[in-house]
Design brief:
The protein has 373 residues and is mostly beta strands. Helices cover 0% and strands 49% of the residues.
Length: 373
């Protein structure tokens, strides 16, 4: 029996096996919630949270996201494990590999799909794990490591390696094609109308059509990008290593506006209908008008920010490396409240079914009951 507010330690090796894993259930099954990568909730969130439970895994998380499907929570970590819990924090099982998992897994039907960076090797693997029959059904090798989030366009899986090679896989794990850009890439791509948009270390922004494999555009507009791309209203938003936030016309890649934050941006911007928010490594949060790029406000947290926030209608939930999670008023930029943790918050807060999930360094996962209005 799980005791509320107790710490549950995962030390056993029970395989990740979910007997009644049904398809077509609701959930938050990909990084960003959708392939435009827009972490936005239309609800207002209460600032008073009730802690439900926390669990301890064996490895830390990368700056990524947890995944939830129906009543199941999935956690991947840098020790090469994927864990599953139910909505009450009960441990369901784990799948262990030699290597590290730096991105969020994908769910396709009963399959858990993720990129595994193999230790001491010059390659990584795309692993297809069947949760109904707990076993790996395919493990496809690719060159180089993977720190960019995976994409599912409805017809297959796409993986963008750190070397800048784009791979296409079937749902059965068969490699269909690859496209080499020739440039190191640490920018999680976004998908719009079967076009994949991402930046690279040469300061280029690329749009690649996944059906034709043709490059729509490849434009050098900066020195380097390590922020992922967010798409909203036929526009793409991306931050660069110099601290500039760009708003691009999605069809052409034309720069519509850019504004300075002063320091390197590694997080995804987050957007609502009127505003784009972005954070930098100096610990500053900015709010810009989505159409003009005009500054609305700036909030200083005093700690390095390298984790993408969650945006609701009233609050921006922003972790930083000072072991805090800040609740920032989206209209004023004022810090409403902050929560202290024993370690750095490593995952973007995940909200589903009135429960907020947060992953903290050294493997702790926290669940809170949060009201909406």
């Amino acid at each position: 029996m799980i005791f509320v507010l107790s710490l549950l330690s995962v030390k056993c090796t029970r395989p990740l096996f979910i007997r009644d894993f049904f398809v077509d259930k609701p959930g938050f099954t990909i990084y960003g919630g959708n392939y435009q990568r827009n972490y936005f909730l239309k609800e207002n969130l209460d600032t008073t949270w009730q802690k439900l439970w926390d669990v301890e895994t064996e490895g830390s998380q990368q700056s990524s996201s947890l995944i939830i499907y129906d009543k199941y929570l999935f956690v991947s970590d840098l020790s090469g494990k994927v864990y599953a819990y139910d909505e009450n924090g009960n441990f369901l099982g784990t799948s262990k590999y030699s290597g590290s998992i730096s991105t969020a897994p994908l769910i396709y039907k009963q399959e858990l799909i993720f990129a595994l960076n193999d230790y001491n090797e010059k390659y990584s693997s795309v692993v297809y794990y069947d949760m109904n029959f707990p076993k790996v059904i395919e493990r496809a090798r690719i060159e180089g490591s993977v720190h960019n989030e995976l994409v599912d366009n409805g017809s297959g899986i796409f993986v963008l390696s750190d070397q800048g090679t784009l791979y296409s896989f079937s749902y059965a794990g068969l490699k269909l094609w690859e496209f080499k850009t020739g440039v190191q890439t640490f920018s999680s791509p976004a998908l719009f109308k079967n076009n994949l948009i991402f930046g690279n270390q040469n300061g280029e922004v690329l749009s690649v059509n996944l059906a034709s494999r043709e490059v729509n555009y490849r434009l050098k507009i900066s020195s380097a990008f390590e922020s992922g791309v967010v798409i909203k209203n036929n526009r793409a938003f991306i931050g660069d290593n110099e601290g500039n936030l760009f708003c691009l016309e999605l069809a052409s890649g034309k720069v519509l506006w850019k504004n300075k934050t002063g320091f390197k941006i590694k997080t995804l911007p987050v957007v609502n209908d009127s505003t784009v928010f972005v954070s930098n490594l100096h610990g500053d949060i900015f709010s810009f008008n989505i159409n003009t790029g005009r500054l609305n406000w700036k909030c200083e947290t005093g700690g390095v920010i390298d984790v993408t926030p969650l945006l609701s209608s009233n609050l921006l939930l922003q972790p930083n490396q000072n072991k805090k999670l800040y609740m920032v008023n989206v209209s004023s930029g004022k810090i409403v409240k902050s929560i202290d943790y024993p370690e750095k918050v490593r995952t973007t807060p995940l909200f589903y079914n009135n429960t907020l999930y947060i992953g903290v360094d050294k493997g702790n996962i926290y669940a809170y009951k949060v009201g909406t209005y």
